Amino acid sequence: MDQLETASQKGSKEFRRILDMQFANSPPVLTHHRVTKDVYFWVIDWINTTQQIFDPFVLFQDIREFGESQFYGLVAEAKWAINDEQSARVAAQQALDFDPFYAPAHNLMNIMDGVDVENVGNKFICCQPFTQMELKTIAGRDQFTFCCLQWSPYLITGLDLHKDEDIWNSEGAREFRKSILDGNYKYCNKRICTLYNNPIHNMVTREETRATSTLTSTSIKPTKLSPKRLIQSDFMRKQTQKVDPYFVDRPRHIFIAYDESCNLACPSCRKGIKRVSEKKRIEMDDLFESHVRPLLINGKTHLTASGHGDPIGSPHLRNKLKSIVGIEYSGVKINLQTNGQLLDEYGWNELSNILTKIADIRISIDAATKETYEVVRFPGNWEKLLANLDLTKQYKKKHGFRFIINFCIQSFNFNEIMQFAELGQQYGVDKVNFQQLINWGTYSSEDYKNRNIADVNHVRHDDFKQLLTHTFYKYPNIQLSSGLRRFLNR
Fold first, then answer.
1. Residues 321, 326, 332, CA angle at the centre, nearest 5°?
2. How many domains does the chain have?
3. 3-state secondary structure the chain
4. How many alpha carbons fall within 13 Å on the CB side of residue 127?
5. Which range marks the domain in which residue 20 is found?
6. Closest to 250 measured CA to CA, from 194, 319, 331, 323
7. Residues 6 or more apart in contact with residue 192 via CB below 8 angstroms
8. How far apart are the first and last CA of the chain?
9. Using one digit for the tens of pLDDT, what is the confidence trace for 88-118?
10. Which of 218, 240, 262 is the endpoint of a domain?
């Protein structure tokens, strides 16, 4: 901090030189995936201690090239530190214009809005960094994260750099877990994360972890906790009482999202149908065998495929899923995320030897009519989807897995929100999940702004809120992700 304090008096170039030097000598163990150099927390620490009077637009100018969202986020923090709330809000919104899910800007907005006054972090512990490993491809590299990038945009480590190391307990993983146990949740998007915004149902209380045993505690009545919550509470109680609470023996949930293979070219996700090369398929086979399969034979494990393509449309994933048979995999349960177009009789036959392992089927649809579906899920066929939904309903009755349908809300389809809930009733689904549209690089900034009806500045935002609220309170099985709950009219 002393070096930054001195550098700030000499101007933006010296301020950047000191940050460059610090980054080279001791880079942060966790970095935001959309900035080239993540210096946010270093600069924030300085802003909160300095007595300097400075213009952040001038002082931070030379670090602007690290990322526009980071630049405007730091400007917002500097303005907020001197109680200039109006300027802070403008700058925070500018950060979000460049990256709609830039976590630091969202978290500052929460502070300015007086949200989270009860401080969720001090009362609840998120289990995900202690239980879930997500393997995904980001900017052409295989990466390890704990959750989706809109909930936490920080990368734990690149898999190519740690082929033979324990990435699960890497320095970045331990730092992330520390932020959870410390209660600051600094690497999380507190405004968007579904878990953080509904902690009673998605996290464990710190009281539960302090109990001698969740199952016998006199202060916590087990009858009020679901079986899943009892397991989570007992796990976190034991974990937090370890000498080293940041070290976890193994993940309980592995999420595969490194395979982009898909039979559809949904405009919200990609610009064309993707098929991976033979070279890439071999690399993915090696990745599965080195980082995934060894973890599947160590105890009860959930395996989710895939959040990035379609597991049935991917030869790699389809073959690997079919190989999870035998007594050594008796503890494995499988969750499938698919567009449903291939869940016909042939598709279900392909999954026949793992049917008893399937715990969860999630089908992404994003529409309730043929006209809308065949645009947002191009080149999907509506009649084929409905037939496959009916078939999935039959398999659900026989095998008992959870059945969920997904709807990504945008200006083009939001009028079908309630119809989609009705569709869920028709096919007997367990949950109807709504989520916010994310720009994965397929839209221009202007196009995304026109489509993102969850933006409070969108011309039809109020219509969206009214319809979402009405649907949420009318149907009992609605699930809201991506922070959509904050848009409900009370």
1. 55
2. 3
3. CHHHHHHHCCCHHHHHHHHHHHHHHCCCCCEECCCCCCCHHHHHHHHCCCCCCCCHHHHCHHHHHHCHHHHHHHHHHHHHHCCCHHHHHHHHHHHHHHCCCCHHHHHHHHHHHCCCCCCHHHHEECCHHHHEEEEEEECCEEEEECCCCCCCCEECEEHHHCCCCCHHHCHHHHHHHHHHHHCCCCCCCCCCCHHHHCHHHHCEEHHHHHCCCCCCCCCCCHHHCCHHHHHHHHHHHHHHCCCCCCCCCCCCEEEEECCCCCCCCCCCCCCCCCCCCHHHHHHHHHHHHHHHHHHHCCCCEEEEECCCCCCCCCHHHHHHHHCCCCHHHCCEEEEEEECCCCCCHHHHHHCHHHHHHEEEEEEECCCCCHHHHHHHCCCCCHHHHHHHHHHHHHHHHHHCCEEEEEEEECCCCHHHHHHHHHHHHHCCCCEEEEEECCCCCCCCHHHHHHHCCCCCCCCCHHHHHHHHHHHHHHCCCEEECCCHHHHCCC
4. 25
5. 2-115
6. 331
7. 101, 103, 106, 150, 151, 436, 482, 483
8. 44
9. 999 999 999 898 889 999 999 999 998 875 6
10. 240
Which of 115, 143, 161 is at the close of a domain? 115
Contacts of 329 (CB under 8 A, 6+ apart): 296, 297, 357
Distance CA 197, CA 429 (A): 24
pLDDT at 432: 98
> Is the residue at 361 inside a domain?
no
pLDDT by residue (tens digit) across 304-354?
998 688 999 999 999 999 999 999 999 999 999 999 999 999 999 999 999
Q: Kindly report the pTM of this predicted structure.
A: 0.88
The rounded distance, in Å, linking the Cα atoms of 69 and 98 is 6
Q: Does residue 160 sit in the same domain as residue 234?
A: yes
The stretch 219-241 carries a mean pLDDT of 78
- With tokens 């065998």, the residue in question is 289
pLDDT at 364 over 90: yes
Question: Cis bond leading into 306, ω under 30°?
Answer: yes
Within this chain, do residues 187 and 211 fall inside the same structural domain, yes or no?
Answer: yes
As a whole number of angstroms, the distance between CA 261 and CA 232 comes to: 33
> Do 128 and 85 have their domain in common?
no
**Torsional sign, CA 46, 73, 123, 226:** negative
Residue carrying the six token digits 């659900």: 396
Contacts of 142 (CB under 8 A, 6+ apart): 135, 136, 158, 159, 160, 258, 287
